[in-house]
Write a structure and sequence with these properties.
- The structure holds two protein chains of two kinds.
- Chain A is mostly beta strands.
- Chain A has strands at about 5, 10-15, 20-25, 35-40, 45-50, 55-60, 60-65, 70-75, 85-90, 100, 105-110.
- In chain A, the strands form two sheets. In chain A, strands 2, 4, 5, 9, 10 and 11 form a six-stranded mixed beta sheet that branches. A five-stranded antiparallel beta sheet of chain A has the order 1-3-8-7-6, with no helix packed on it.
- In chain A, a hairpin with an 8-residue loop joins strand 9 and strand 10 (about 100).
- Chain A is globular, with a radius of gyration of 13 Å.
- Chain B is mainly β.
- Chain B contains no helices and eleven strands.
- In chain B, strands 2, 4, 5, 6, 9, 10 and 11 form a seven-stranded mixed beta sheet that branches.
- Chain B starts with a strand and ends with a strand.
- Classes of the chains: A mainly beta, B mainly beta.
- The interface of A and B includes residues 46 and 99 of A.
Chain lengths: ~110, ~120
């Protein structure tokens, strides 16, 4: 059973726009929430991660927003660029370093 | 990531055949993982190993087995392959002694397996 639910499945955004991908989880014991980015033909790579003791983490154009009470977290990509076109996976684990529970992924296309 | 290598990169096999996928890493990490990726299903954990003597089943271990031959090597075997094991397989590593507020998992380039 999927422990992390991700939406939307696919997303098309114009260059310069904001891309938003949402995830929800059920297990309140999860305490590590990373986002991975995957380009075609490559393995996933860590993009940004957050722990539940903070509500937001920003790295460049990428921001994670975390809502502990709602058991939801989201990835915001500001000023989206064609080079951001990739598949994005949210994930959660009980402790950092333990096996990750991944969402099903979101295929993002940023059009010129 | 070039530090995590997987062999073969592509493999076509027939139903009932035994096949082994290999993963090697030069990162010096102690933890290794095998995931399976299917379109629309994301990545699902097959097995994980926290050290050479510690191997654990993941979400979808049925039909698979693993061997941790050394800290740097973690192999995944399909004893009798079946068509629904056709998928993209990823090996990943992490370091339990990692600093910072998380232990990043580093993924290999993947093995595309087709079972006819």
């Amino acid at each position: 059973q999927q422990q992390v639910k991700q939406s939307p499945q696919s997303l098309i955004v114009q260059k310069g726009g904001i891309s938003i991908i949402n995830c929800a989880y059920e297990n309140t014991a999860f305490d590590y929430f990373p986002w991975y980015q995957q380009f075609p033909g490559k393995g996933p790579a860590l993009l940004i991660a957050i722990r539940p003791d903070v509500s937001e983490k920003k790295e460049g154009r990428f921001t994670i927003s975390f809502n502990k009470s709602a058991k939801q977290f989201s990835l915001h990509i500001m000023d989206s660029q064609p080079g951001d076109s990739a598949t994005y996976f949210c994930a959660a684990s009980l402790n950092s370093g333990y096996a990750l529970n991944f969402g099903k992924g979101t295929s993002l296309l940023v059009t010129p | 990531d070039a530090d995590v290598t997987q062999t073969p990169r592509n493999r076509i096999t027939k139903t009932g055949k035994r096949i082994m996928l290999e993963c090697s890493q030069t990162k010096g990490h102690d933890r290794m993982y095998w995931y399976r990726q299917d379109p629309g299903l994301g990545l699902r954990l097959i097995y994980y190993s926290f050290d050479v003597k510690d191997i654990n089943k993941g979400e979808i271990s049925d039909g698979y087995s693993v061997s941790r031959q050394a800290q740097a090597k973690f192999s995944l075997s399909l004893e009798s392959a079946i068509p629904n094991q056709t998928a993209l397989y990823f090996c990943a590593t992490s370091d339990s002694s990692g600093t910072g507020d998380y232990n990043e998992q580093f993924f290999g380039p993947g093995t595309r397996l087709t079972v006819l």
